[in-house]
Design brief:
175 residues; mainly alpha; 7 helices; globular
Length: 175
């Protein structure tokens, strides 16, 4: 009986340890052109566990390159960002909206009120999205409705070329 209890205790302990995050929020996940990206920055925007984190780091790096290039080009996103923020509201508490559920979960994770998290989340993601969109429009122009798949393929090729071009300035620390 003691052996059985010991095994059960060890299994419970192992399960408890495995649910603990492997990566600290302050840990640097990647460096893109001298800009450090922390695990916490990625976790703030995305509901990602430690197993999914390496894949999300790669995606975040792709986005970060475009954000930085857009800033270098002097692209202005202030008006578009302000318009988006002005008309976006958190769905009501009793809503089954997936966005509401996401905000509830993320706010709890980062220790913020839902409203505060949502406002911060919106500011960060809206700015990033606007920089990415403006960069893509500047580099590739507007998509045409008759060849949207080709446009998406061109965007992906362009991003992959950026990764290759700036490979010496990209360091992914969480793989």
């Amino acid at each position: 009986m003691k052996r059985f209890l010991l095994v059960v205790c060890l299994l419970l302990w192992a399960a408890a340890c495995s649910s603990q995050p492997v990566y600290d929020d302050d840990e640097v996940a990647a460096i893109v052109m001298d800009e450090k990206i922390t695990v916490g920055e990625i976790r703030f925007i995305y509901d990602v566990n430690d197993q999914e984190l390496p894949k999300m780091v790669k995606e975040f790096v792709k986005e970060e390159i475009m954000v930085q290039k857009a800033k270098e080009m002097g692209l202005d996103i202030s008006e578009e960002a302000e318009e988006t923020l002005a008309f976006t509201h958190l769905p009501p508490e009793d809503s089954e909206d997936p966005l509401r559920k996401f905000v509830e979960k993320q706010a709890k994770k980062v220790g913020m009120s839902e409203e505060k998290y949502y406002q911060d989340y919106l500011k960060k993601t809206t700015k990033r999205s606007q920089y990415v969109n403006q960069y893509i429009l500047k580099e590739l122009g507007h998509p045409h409705s008759d060849n949207e798949n080709d446009y998406v393929d061109n965007v992906n090729k362009h991003v992959n070329n950026l990764i290759t071009k700036y490979a010496d300035e990209i360091e992914i620390l969480i793989k």
